[in-house]
Design brief:
The complex is a heterotrimer.
Chain A (H helix, E strand, L loop, with lengths): L5 H15 L3 H29 L2 E4 L10 E4 L1 H24 L6 H20 L3 H19 L5 H32 L4 H10 L6 H16 L7 H5 L5 H25 L5 H24 L4 H22 L2 H32 L10 H4 L1 H15 L5 H16 L2 H27 L16 H19 L1 H17 L1 H8 L2
Antiparallel strand pairs in A: 1-2
Helix pairs in contact in A: 1-2, 1-4, 2-3, 2-4, 3-4, 3-10, 3-13, 3-18, 4-5, 5-6, 5-10, 6-8, 7-20, 8-10, 10-12, 10-13, 11-12, 11-17, 12-13, 12-16, 12-17, 13-15, 13-16, 13-18, 13-19, 15-17, 15-18, 16-17, 16-18, 18-19
Chain B lengths: L3 H23 L8 H18 L2 H7 L4 H21 L9 E6 L3 E6 H24 L4
Antiparallel strand pairs in B: 1-2
Chain C lengths: L1 H19 L4 H22 L23 H32 L13
Helix pairs in contact in C: 1-2, 2-3
Classes of the chains: A mainly alpha, B mainly alpha, C mainly alpha.
Chain lengths: 493, 138, 114
Amino acid sequence: MIITALPILIPFVLIVIMIISRSLVFSKITGIIGSLGLLILSVIIFYKIDKQGFLVLNMAGWKSPYGITLVVDFLSGLMLTISSIIVLAISIYAYKSLSLEKGVTKFYVFFFSLIMGVNGAFITGDVFNLYVWFEVMLISSFVLITFGKSKEQLEGGIKYLALNLLGSLFFLAGLGLLYGKTGTLNMAHLADILRNDNQVILMNTSAILFFIAFGIKAAVFPLFFWLPASYHTANITISSLFAGLLTKVGVYAFIRFFTLFFVHDQAFWHQFLLIIAGFTMVIGGMSASIHYDTRKILSFHIISQIGYMIMGLGIYTPLAIAGAIFFTIHNMIAKTNTFIVAGLIYKLKGSFYLKDVGGIIKQNPMLAILFIIPAFALAGVPPISGFFAKFILIKAGIDDGHFVIVILAVLTALLTLYSMIKIWNEAFLKKQPDNEFSGQNTVLSFVDMLPSIILGIMSILMGIFAFKVFDFTMQAADQLIEGTGYINNILNK
Amino acid sequence: MNSIILQIAARHIKALLVLFAIIALLRGHNYPGGGFIGGLLAALSVIYYGFAFNAKQVRDKLKISPTTYIALGLSLVVLSFVPSILNQLELMQGVWLKVQIPILGELKLGTPLLFDIGVFLTVIGVTFLFFFSLTKVE
Amino acid sequence: MEILLAILVGILYTAGVYMILRRSIVKFIIGIIFLSNATNLLVFLASGIVSGKPVFVGEELADASQMADPLPQALVLTAIVIGFGIVVFTLALKFKFFELTGTDDLDQLKKTDT
């Protein structure tokens, strides 16, 4: 069905429009309308998934496993919907935050090619196609991260590029070995072969290469160094987009690969993933606590939260996978929101450095509320989304007897809370220190705060309707772990 | 660079390369060749010219800007999806039109060709962009 | 043939890793080129290499035993294209960076780390 391919086609058409467009206002408005269209589309897709389970499209009529297949299952549908919400929020945010610099229309070209890459990665059912979408995403993100062409941005860009490039090479190498061993790259066919046939040898070489590739994309423990070195240099609009989407695509690939077909050496892999998860959480949380630059704190928090998602994957019960998915979608929204709020603080005060700013609670109480929602969501305070996500993960951990990781998860939650309280105390409660930033009197308009309001409401709704969301994530996890539905639907058995 | 041999060669090779590029483009559906390779060859003809003279001259002589090439190419790619959607086929499935031409025989025109021409133009545009950004002609 | 290619892949990986560990950005880019070529060869090699058989045999000769597997060739071709684009972008980035800072030394790039 054609609707399956629309999440890729709509951004593609928008890219063409944005290349032709010469007017900034036109680009901005088309951007917002286009993202709204994407959101409506992904909600329709999700509704269809809820009805029939899978949407499959064989490109150009080549039957699976020979052609490229696009598949939307519950996991893809959830990720698509949430990423569309983020895209909408960011395009509204960009309406105000991108000033009339030269070449801003170019921003939208790469913005939508990034979205095309992300959506493509979510819905593809073919490993090589996933690699291509990763590259589409990566090249657009290279351009976006060096967008302002300042010294710092170029430096961050070089680091970002260097490590992500290596990640892609690992991906390609793993994919080549996988093809050599199984003779297929279709995910359903791979699952069919690897689940039913223990004769396939040397799977761990491929699996570890994929682990390194996705580990670099998702910024897990020993491979995360590109993230804190580059995210804070970019324009805050772009940082917010990256924070919400990019690393989560890596996590998505992790969940997809390590539940659907890399199920061969469970004892080793789950132990390994849990160790990685523990280190990622704790080191991310601890590094965040020593920084005073808002963007740095939030960047390290991205890493720390990735740990929870990997933890769910490592425990590997249906409940834990559901928890990991719940955590991922909650985190995408809350993380983007915190970055947007950091951008608003910058707009209000003129600095990202916490020692420079203060007294926002008196100056703009609305902003304080907008900060509290995602901060509580990240720290896991009920009844906002993060509490339920962490609760599910911790429950799954206790049920399965992984006490060490559970203790680490709880401790990291405290570290997160500490960092959030630090931002709260320094930026909001403390009196404005007497410096060059004290004279700033920018007034934030409603449009400025609208994206943050949308995302905040989403976080709260996900908390209030946690059972409904949990239901969806549970279905996604069941589909992944059971696997036969996926295989049969795509290979038409 | 100021080599007289290169400069004279560039003038004559240009037309030859473009011709070769179009051949590569047209036979690309069933045989080696295709939009990407054709596009590279076509762009190469201009870039070769740029090496022989200098990039700025090429930039001034170019009538259509690189971004226009890209926009045109991508629009053709989008256009090539439309027949398959209208005919209720799977996305990107080829739709063929057979045209009888006197003397030459039957000619098969299809959406894959349209797609390839789109790729051809996009590659030309992108290669020009690369070339101009690396030789510092804005 | 396979053993020779395997050794070549190994040499390319070694050279690539050595180059990306050097201090200069230009050498880093050369290292990336080595590594991506090594990876392309690895994909080609791992998915079974046969000599003297074409991928396209025309409609009348469609016999699988006379054909090479077309998929790895398509994969490698795509990967080469992507690698080409990325190398050009890296070069442009390096250009811009050199213009702004006048340095080619990776050890100077410490400002965004802390």
